[in-house]
Amino acid sequence: MADGGWIKLYRSIRSNWIWANGNERYAKWWMDLIMMVNHEPRKVLVNGNLITIGVGQRLTSIKKLSETWGASRNTVDKFLRLLVEDKMIEVQKSRTSGTSIKVLNYADYQTFSPEKSKRSEQGVEHQPEQRSEQRSEHKQEPKELLKNLEKEKEKKSLSSLGRGDLVKFWENNGFGMISSKTREDLMYWVDDFKKIGSSEEQAIAIVQKALDISVDNNVRRYNYANSILQNWESKKLTSVEAIKALEIKRQQDKQQHAIGRNMESQVYHNQGDVSDDELPF
């Protein structure tokens, strides 16, 4: 996290839920996240492996954030889930590398032209020409906001499911109130399926499919859904369509096997009914 530099902050944040009365700490945490993430790619060593943390991303943990912000882990986890549901960040959790946070549309907060950066380094940012450019940027702000809103609407239309829907499905289908560990495990599964090729939406749909099967079979336990997901992961199934196709094939193979056994039984039965006149001696 860089100590110097700057970020852009639009006045429109005042109309966001994060700025509402009573959410003052949310606003502070959100601005802290924007300043915390990388403004350029960086390589870090994690458990002996060299990984690249991209622009707008930060590798951290719920524990570290709770210590930095002076709040409980549950409170921090709730705040991050709200940001995810509002398409403001993406969170990926890994058992080995921790929690990765990506600020979506990060360029809106940290975009500047190389020419303006050069003038800033030379200490002439207060010249009339610079002030003219700043006024021009403020005039363009509403247009930029409209473009961003259109992008967000498009993203939401493409995604019918969010990670928060898994929690709602769990609590609305007889599993009971979800624990923080179970919630975290479900999110881990979303990330695990993304690692083998699923998109965010496909991974969420796969996890919900496992929960749906648990409901259909009246076995509303995490261990049951977990075993289903482990089976699908081992078969590299990256979409609900692939899961359905495998199930269809399994049923067809089962029917073919049953037909084969039935034919063998009929042959054996017919051999027992052969009369003495039909024997070749």
TrEMBL record:
Annotated segments matching region Disordered: 114-142, 254-281
YhfZ helix-turn-helix domain segment(s): 55-99
One Pfam family, short name: HTH_41
Domain DnaB/C C-terminal positions: 168-245
UniProt xrefs under InterPro entries: DnaB/C_C (IPR006343), DnaD (IPR053162), DnaD-like_sf (IPR034829), HTH_41 (IPR041444), WH-like_DNA-bd_sf (IPR036388), WH_DNA-bd_sf (IPR036390)
Family classification: Belongs to the DnaB/DnaD family.
NCBIfam families per UniProt: DnaD_dom
Name of the protein in its database record: DNA damage-indicible protein DnaD
Organism for this UniProt entry: Lacticaseibacillus paracasei N1115
Organism placement in taxonomy: Bacteria, Bacillati, Bacillota, Bacilli, Lactobacillales
